[in-house]
């Protein structure tokens, strides 16, 4: 299992140099079950929120993409009510764009980017998507309200709960919100035509 | 994984041990790369194709070396039960009564992890399952062998009896398999045929059952066999390449039985046998059966084999059931219903059935008592049943040329190799049934191609999927019928019935009971809904039961084989077919295509120092593979990715586009 070796390295990298606004750690010593948090980006309706994600790493990782899902409700054209994310990097070719040179960290960054830049042309939530396209103020308002409601205060308690259950050393929270750092990411040729 | 568990606990001694373990692991990884680098191209391929490389850091160099040795020493002998079982990552199945589910679970883990052996025994039965998976190629092979043994003493007695009888009536031999089955020892050469097709579209599932039954001499009141050992065994040659597992598509080989290497002749050494035999069955269990005396065996047993049978009594010679000719024939058969987009389920029921068929006196009992039982009855040589499950994906175009011959039912016979072929198409499924005879062994091959594509693409039309399911059920049921092989001789008292009634599930009108000659064949035939072969010499005959010998009452073995479909491993078909709902299976490269990509050794001066698949830095001497886009990776890392995908993990450029010229044959 290449998975474990690789995951270990990834977790190490995530803890030493996490991407800005992203943190990731393993739950209860299970290497295939991770949690992540993404800080809502500035100038997005998600600003001020802290969004938790669940990451399941399949046996065949990195030959298969990790499975990621939002635990925190989020109002977004490409994320459904169950937290499922429509992102090509989360799917295998030929439909998706997963490749083994991606990793948890880059995928989380992609998600962060997706939060800032929804892709209404490949919607998972059709109504939110059309709202985003044709009535943006309404979308922004709703997204902000959701963030307020789910990602801000509840997040506090979530975080607390996690602090209790989690070993501390694996938990890395970097609250930096420097989005410009995203520029250093691999080119994201996101043609996210993977949903619906 | 070992290390990860402790990572949460804070204790310093824990972190110490953890660190030590990590160091160990690093050492092993180092050793692994060293090892891989020192392998010759050939050895590397050999090991990779047999999935012996494992994961860096998890296997010691010595282990690797011994694996290499083992594989080089020839096909791993399945008989090395003990040694192989060490490799089994899964639950070491000593537990009694493996039920289908646990087997399935086990399989689930196994299919990704490679070679495993699981074995166990209870009472007088022992079983062993071997599976080999090659993650690189996606090949999968699974085999199960079951041995049921009875009391030695009884056996001997029987032998004597039998000998006597034989003396009296040597003529009545059923078809006797030649003692030396064609050995086909060749496993070294990768079987790849040049048949590389562009992109796989289809899934193909082949379930091959080759019951093999040396039919021992039979006399009027042949006592039904004691040492009824049943062997279900997949074609043993360890080359996983022959079989492709569905989930991981594509080998270049066309689906064919020829890829089925024959089991290396005898798996068991005498000592072992003895031991097995020791597990006895109560003597009562033996039955005698009156048989009608027609002792004409059309497929004359080879003369030499006769004596041998007598002498050796229990020696089991395994015979290859599927003749190449039949194979070829079969293979040549018309493509699936939809241009290459068909899943193919092939059930080959062979020899035993065949043998039985050859013997006029064999009558299928009501339960579908298979001749195998009778073979067993013959007692001297235990029948051998091999079950071989092969799964592979059909490449588009693979059958294309032959598609034109679709939708007809036809049959033809080639006297040359005695091969008959029947074919029909109904409801979108194509079935073929072929029979061939060789050296007194008849082989039945039944194939069904199911256009899975249609299902997955068209978005699961209810009807189709129902049809598919029922097809699968039929197949499994058909195989389940095999269980009667084992079962039947116990119930043979009521075997004096006519032709085998079709199993409940199989409503195929075409089923021709008369031909049931071989239950296996019948099973296969009925499973496929195929045509039963008209075998001239098969007869339905009445079989008298002699004496009030009670049917065997002994407890059945751990694997409950009684009900149709209960052979746990038969669910594999289900497992494979239904597990594969991801319709967007990535397309990978074939082994040849991969091997044609250039490799080199890492040198310190290189710029890119990390393999992006494993995120590990290259070490001096690491073997790297360079894709046409110039990106490089560890060979073992990229090979695995390319076996399922065709793009560069970094730039996503298609590997084949530029590689095509050289690599595609």
TrEMBL record, chain A:
<keyword id="KW-0067">ATP-binding</keyword>
<keyword id="KW-0833">Ubl conjugation pathway</keyword>
<feature type="compositionally biased region" description="Basic and acidic residues">
    <location>
        <begin position="163"/>
        <end position="181"/>
    </location>
</feature>
<feature type="region of interest" description="Disordered">
    <location>
        <begin position="151"/>
        <end position="196"/>
    </location>
</feature>
<keyword id="KW-0808">Transferase</keyword>
<dbReference type="InterPro" id="IPR023313">
    <property type="entry name" value="UBQ-conjugating_AS"/>
</dbReference>
<feature type="active site" description="Glycyl thioester intermediate">
    <location>
        <position position="86"/>
    </location>
</feature>
<keyword id="KW-0547">Nucleotide-binding</keyword>
<comment type="similarity">
    <text>Belongs to the ubiquitin-conjugating enzyme family.</text>
</comment>
<protein>
    <recommendedName>
        <fullName>Ubiquitin-conjugating enzyme E2 T</fullName>
        <ecNumber>2.3.2.23</ecNumber>
    </recommendedName>
</protein>
<feature type="domain" description="UBC core">
    <location>
        <begin position="2"/>
        <end position="152"/>
    </location>
</feature>
<dbReference type="GO" id="GO:0005524">
    <property type="term" value="F:ATP binding"/>
</dbReference>
<dbReference type="InterPro" id="IPR050113">
    <property type="entry name" value="Ub_conjugating_enzyme"/>
</dbReference>
<dbReference type="GO" id="GO:0061631">
    <property type="term" value="F:ubiquitin conjugating enzyme activity"/>
</dbReference>
<dbReference type="Pfam" id="PF00179">
    <property type="entry name" value="UQ_con"/>
</dbReference>
<dbReference type="InterPro" id="IPR016135">
    <property type="entry name" value="UBQ-conjugating_enzyme/RWD"/>
</dbReference>
<dbReference type="InterPro" id="IPR000608">
    <property type="entry name" value="UBC"/>
</dbReference>
TrEMBL record, chain B:
<keyword id="KW-0539">Nucleus</keyword>
<feature type="region of interest" description="Disordered">
    <location>
        <begin position="69"/>
        <end position="141"/>
    </location>
</feature>
<feature type="compositionally biased region" description="Basic and acidic residues">
    <location>
        <begin position="16"/>
        <end position="25"/>
    </location>
</feature>
<dbReference type="GO" id="GO:0061630">
    <property type="term" value="F:ubiquitin protein ligase activity"/>
</dbReference>
<feature type="compositionally biased region" description="Polar residues">
    <location>
        <begin position="110"/>
        <end position="137"/>
    </location>
</feature>
<keyword id="KW-0479">Metal-binding</keyword>
<feature type="compositionally biased region" description="Polar residues">
    <location>
        <begin position="406"/>
        <end position="421"/>
    </location>
</feature>
<dbReference type="GO" id="GO:0016567">
    <property type="term" value="P:protein ubiquitination"/>
</dbReference>
<keyword id="KW-0862">Zinc</keyword>
<feature type="compositionally biased region" description="Polar residues">
    <location>
        <begin position="250"/>
        <end position="260"/>
    </location>
</feature>
<comment type="pathway">
    <text>Protein modification; protein ubiquitination.</text>
</comment>
<feature type="compositionally biased region" description="Basic and acidic residues">
    <location>
        <begin position="536"/>
        <end position="545"/>
    </location>
</feature>
<feature type="region of interest" description="Disordered">
    <location>
        <begin position="360"/>
        <end position="385"/>
    </location>
</feature>
<dbReference type="InterPro" id="IPR001841">
    <property type="entry name" value="Znf_RING"/>
</dbReference>
<dbReference type="Pfam" id="PF13639">
    <property type="entry name" value="zf-RING_2"/>
</dbReference>
<keyword id="KW-0808">Transferase</keyword>
<dbReference type="GO" id="GO:0008270">
    <property type="term" value="F:zinc ion binding"/>
</dbReference>
<feature type="compositionally biased region" description="Basic and acidic residues">
    <location>
        <begin position="281"/>
        <end position="296"/>
    </location>
</feature>
<feature type="compositionally biased region" description="Polar residues">
    <location>
        <begin position="220"/>
        <end position="234"/>
    </location>
</feature>
<dbReference type="Pfam" id="PF25914">
    <property type="entry name" value="RNF6_N"/>
</dbReference>
<feature type="domain" description="RING-type">
    <location>
        <begin position="611"/>
        <end position="652"/>
    </location>
</feature>
<feature type="compositionally biased region" description="Low complexity">
    <location>
        <begin position="1"/>
        <end position="15"/>
    </location>
</feature>
């Amino acid at each position: 299992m290449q998975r474990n070796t690789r995951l270990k390295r990834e977790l190490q990298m995530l803890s030493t140099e996490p991407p800005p606004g992203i943190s990731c750690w393993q739950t209860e010593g299970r290497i295939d079950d991770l949690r992540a948090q993404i800080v809502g980006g500035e100038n997005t309706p998600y600003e001020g929120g802290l969004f938790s994600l669940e990451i399941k790493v399949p046996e065949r990782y990195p030959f298969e993409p990790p499975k990621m899902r939002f635990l925190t409700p989020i109002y977004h054209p490409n994320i459904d009510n169950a937290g499922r994310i429509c992102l090509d990097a989360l799917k295998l070719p030929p439909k998706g764009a997963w490749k083994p040179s991606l990793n948890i960290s880059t995928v989380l960054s992609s998600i962060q980017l997706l939060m800032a830049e929804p892709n209404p042309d490949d919607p998972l939530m059709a109504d939110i998507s059309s709202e985003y396209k044709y009535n943006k103020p309404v979308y922004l308002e709703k997204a902000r309200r959701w963030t307020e409601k789910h990602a801000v205060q509840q997040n506090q308690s979530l975080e607390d709960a996690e602090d209790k259950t989690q070993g501390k050393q694996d938990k890395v929270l970097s609250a930096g919100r420097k989005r410009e750092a995203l520029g250093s990411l691999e080119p994201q040729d996101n043609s996210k035509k993977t949903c619906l | 994984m070992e290390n990860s568990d402790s990572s949460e606990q804070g204790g310093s001694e824990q972190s110490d041990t953890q660190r030590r373990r990590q160091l160990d692991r690093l050492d092993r990884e180092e050793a692994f790369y060293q090892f891989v680098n020192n392998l010759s191209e050939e050895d590397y391929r050999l090991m990779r194709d047999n999935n012996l490389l494992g994961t860096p850091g998890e296997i010691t160099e010595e282990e690797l070396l011994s694996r290499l040795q083992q594989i080089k020493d020839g096909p791993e002998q399945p008989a090395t039960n003990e040694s192989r079982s060490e490799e089994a990552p899964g639950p070491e199945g000593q537990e009694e009564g493996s039920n289908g589910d646990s087997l399935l679970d086990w399989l689930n883990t196994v299919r990704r992890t490679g070679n495993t052996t699981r074995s166990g025994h209870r009472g007088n039965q022992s079983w062993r399952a071997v599976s080999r998976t090659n993650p690189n190629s996606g090949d999968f092979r699974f085999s199960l062998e079951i041995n049921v043994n009875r009391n030695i003493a009884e056996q001997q007695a029987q032998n004597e009896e039998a000998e006597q009888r034989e003396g009296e009536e040597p003529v009545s031999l059923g078809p006797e398999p030649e003692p030396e089955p064609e050995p086909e020892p060749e496993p070294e050469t990768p079987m790849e045929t040049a048949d590389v097709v562009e992109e796989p579209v289809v899934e193909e599932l082949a379930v091959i059952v080759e019951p093999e039954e040396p039919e021992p001499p039979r006399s009027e009141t042949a006592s039904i066999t004691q040492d009824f050992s049943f062997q279900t065994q997949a074609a043993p040659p360890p080359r996983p390449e022959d079989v492709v597992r569905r989930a991981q598509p594509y080998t270049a080989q066309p689906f064919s039985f020829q890829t089925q290497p024959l089991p290396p002749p005898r798996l068991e050494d005498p000592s072992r046998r003895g031991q097995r035999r020791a597990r006895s069955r109560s003597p009562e269990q033996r039955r005698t059966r009156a048989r009608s005396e027609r002792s004409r065996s059309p497929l004359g047993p080879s003369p030499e084999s006769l004596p041998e049978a007598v002498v050796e009594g229990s020696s089991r010679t395994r015979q290859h059931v599927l003749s190449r000719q039949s194979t070829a024939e079969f293979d040549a058969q018309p493509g699936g219903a939809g241009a290459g987009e068909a899943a193919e389920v092939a059930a080959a029921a062979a020899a035993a059935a065949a043998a039985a068929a050859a013997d006029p006196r064999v009558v299928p009992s009501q339960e579908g008592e298979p001749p195998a039982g009778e073979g067993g009855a013959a007692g001297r040589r235990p029948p051998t049943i091999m079950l071989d499950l092969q799964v592979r994906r059909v490449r588009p175009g693979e059958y294309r040329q032959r598609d034109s011959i679709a939708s007809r039912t036809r049959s033809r016979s080639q006297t040359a190799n005695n091969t008959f072929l029947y074919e029909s198409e109904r409801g979108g499924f194509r079935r073929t049934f072929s029979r061939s005879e060789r050296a007194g062994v008849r082989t039945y091959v039944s194939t069904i191609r199911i256009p899975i594509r249609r299902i997955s693409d068209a978005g699961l039309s209810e009807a189709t999927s129902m049809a598919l399911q029922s097809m699968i059920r039929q197949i499994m049921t058909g195989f389940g019928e095999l269980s009667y092989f084992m079962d039947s001789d116990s119930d043979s008292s009521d075997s004096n019935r006519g032709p085998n009634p079709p199993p409940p599930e199989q409503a195929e009108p075409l089923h021709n009971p008369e031909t049931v000659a071989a239950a296996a064949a019948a099973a296969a035939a009925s499973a496929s809904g195929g045509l039963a072969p008209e075998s001239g010499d098969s007869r339905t005959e009445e079989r008298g039961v002699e004496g009030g010998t009670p049917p065997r009452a002994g407890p059945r073995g751990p694997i409950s084989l009684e009900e149709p479909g209960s052979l746990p491993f038969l669910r594999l078909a289900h497992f494979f077919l239904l597990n594969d709902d991801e319709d967007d299976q990535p397309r990978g490269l074939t082994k040849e295509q991969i091997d044609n990509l250039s490799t080199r050794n890492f040198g310190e001066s290189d710029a890119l120092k990390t393999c992006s698949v494993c995120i590990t830095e290259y070490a001096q001497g690491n073997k790297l593979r360079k894709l046409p886009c110039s990106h490089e990776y560890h060979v073992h890392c990229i090979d695995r990715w390319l076996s399922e995908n065709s793009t560069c993990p970094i730039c996503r450029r298609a590997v084949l586009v530029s590689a095509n010229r050289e690599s595609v044959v």
